[in-house]
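As a warm-up, study this chain.
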Amino acid sequence: MEFLVNLLGALFPYDWLEPLFMRRALIGLLLIAPTCASMGVQVVNFRMAFFSDAISHSAFTGVALGLILGIHPQLSMILFGVLIGCGVLLLARKAEMSTDTIIGVFFAAVVALGIVIVSARSGLVRYFEGVLFGDILAISNSDLWVMLGLCTLVALFQWIGFNRLLLLSMNQPLAHSRGIKTTLWELGFGLLLALLVMISLRVVGLLLVTALLVVPAAAARNLARSAGALFWWAITLAGASSLGGLYLSFHWGSATGASVILVGVGFFVASFGYKLMGRRG
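Now compare it with the structure written out below.
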């Protein structure tokens, strides 16, 4: 990974990419943001934005539990987030109430538990700034390897399951009649999404991680005319948002994750305007 970081500096000798941490941040963003965008296509199709929001907020409690139990906070955060995601998905299939209601209950539970733990242990507050806001400029080579592994896993999942998930999101009985194991694919997607959300917190923090999933996919919907085009537009816009957001954050001295999201929102506004002009034409 160090070779790739150095190669980036040699190929693009710009002043804003001269610091080593900026090159690492760019590689991290170009790995994780398009990965989130690709999963964001299904998040939008399945209407699971609230699910990703609940998972991201579970990080608060996961870190607190890790600090109390003597477990590495990042490991406890990821494990707790995946556990919550698994609980939501399994209970939603068995309980006789809407999925949104189940997610709302879990959301309330994890946030309340986190607040209780932190308020009881006031010394823990200082550990949560990175979880809340993210810190892509502080990532290490080991973080980049984790992101690369996750990116590869998601790419493999999408290669095998994109069409299955597309049909599943449109018509579940039809997907089942075609031999698609709907339960297996729903659980697999939900658990992989939970893992992706927890890893992505390092980039934008829990307050904005859902935007990293939804905004590029929403903008892509305004431009794409097919399911395949939607997928590639989302990835392209996420990559462009990452590059533009990192550049602007360097010159403005602003938070990188928030800058990336703002550029993505700019793309959404532009794409929506383009769609309106197309309708009038």
